[in-house]
Amino acid sequence: MKCSICGNKNFKKFRYDFHTNKFNLKKLIKFFLIKIDFFIPNKLIKLKSISSRNRYGFSGFVNVCTDCGYGILDTIPTEKKLIKYYNLEYWNKRDSTVPKFKKLYKKNLRGLSQSLFSLEIIKKLKSNNLNFLDIGAAGAWAILNIRDKITEKTINLHTVEAGQVWGSYYQEAKINKVSDFFPFKSKIKYDYIHTSHWLEHVREIKSTLNWFRNNINKGGFIFVEVPNTEFNYWDRDIDDTPHIHFFTRKSLEKLFKNYNFEIVKMDVLGPSYLELNSKQPIHHNINPTGVYLRAIFKSK
Ligand SMILES: [Zn+2]
Description:
By secondary structure, the chain is of the alpha/beta class. It contains nine helices and eleven strands. The strands form two sheets. A seven-stranded mixed sheet has the order 6-5-4-7-8-11-10, with helices on both faces. The longest helix is centred in the N-terminal third of the chain and has 16 residues, at 79-94. It binds zinc ion. Residues 3, 5-6, 8, 65, 67-68, 70, 251 line the site of zinc ion.
């Protein structure tokens, strides 16, 4: 086995969701719920979200490269299982969090913070008619805020989103949904691709990067925000199903470099895992041990 990002042959193995061997009651209850999944009715949404995870394949081990720090699930769920999961489970659990449009994106703190991160860089794009794509967009909060701030150009917003609950929201926001799932065959090339907490969910990292390569205009930008697994992540039991890939600064930069993208900017931000575990509020300020990695890459 070789690291698909840096080629290194040495790995460390961790059990997904339960990184340490420390025993505690919460862990025991989770193991137990997974065992009795069959008996738990669907309407107990919170319990079901814990008990059903193995059914979709989000279990087993993660192999973590000892050089660049990139981690990947040992056994990746089949495409069929993933589609089923995102169709049946993911948005069902989150249905109540879907806002009615009414310009609520203006108050979405993550979207606002991401839009400010990208704004000055996007302004460098020369064309007056720009196509933006948000993959795994949900409320497309960041690109909506960006469109508001660049009034001198036409910005066409496109999304890929499996959650059907966003239909009327997109209509009101004048967003063109191009596909339920990624990858899809695109008729146009994009100037800016926004992916927020999405890349860690894809099945295949190589074909994803190839898709970016083939569907972005020369000089275009790709925004990526993913969980940062560089600091303390593997020292604690962190429950973040359904992730498949695990990134560090080094691995994320190298991955894009391998596909001829240059790094424009990268920040580490947010609370630390320690603060998250002790229920401290989420923020998006720069923090050297933060749980988020945010970057922009430019297509050469
Ligand atoms: Zn590596």
